Amino acid sequence: xxxxxxxxxxxxxxxxxxxxxxxxxxxxxxxxxxxxxxxxxxxxxxxxxxxxxxxxxxxxxxxxxxxxxxxxxxxxxxxxxxxxxxxxxxxxxxxxxxxxxxxxxxxxxxxxxxxxxxxxxxxxxxxxxxxxxxxxxxxxxxxxxxxxxxxxxxxxxx
Length: 158
Fold this sequence. Notes:
Layout: H1 5-20, E1 24-25, H2 28-35, E2 42-43, H3 44-59, H4 62-67, H5 71-80, H6 86-96, E3 104-112, E4 119-126, E5 131-139, E6 145-149
Antiparallel strand pairs: 1-2, 3-4, 4-5, 5-6
Helix pairs in contact: 1-3, 3-6, 5-6
C-alpha cells in the first residue's frame, strides 16, 4: 500500500525534532531499580525515538520506521518477512502488530550491555489486548537512538 507524502510529512517532522532535541527525562524509580542504577535517567531522545517508532507502525511507514532502526534490526525484519529490504517488510510487520492501533509507550528502563560500555533503553509497548513486548534502543555511532530489538522479531544474540 502506498502512503500519501502529506501523511508522512508530519512523521518526518516528528523524527527531525526527535533528532535535534537535547533534553532528558527521568525513567522513574521503578526504571532505575530495574536497571540496577542510581541515576537511571532515560534520555528524552530515546523516548521520542520510541514514540516515533509507534507512529511509524500506525502509519505503516516503512521509510520512517526503518530510519529508526540499526542495520541489524533492518536486516532481521526483512529476513523475518522474506522481503528484499526493511521498507518492504515494514508494512506487513506493522500489520502483525495491528498497525500500532492502541499501542502506547509504557515503562522505560535504562541499563547497559554486559560490558557496561553501551547504554540501552528498553521501552515496554503497552496494548490493551495483547502483549507486544519491548522495544530496545541504543545510540548509534552518530549519537542517535535507534531500535536494536523489535517486538515480535528475533534478532539473535546481543
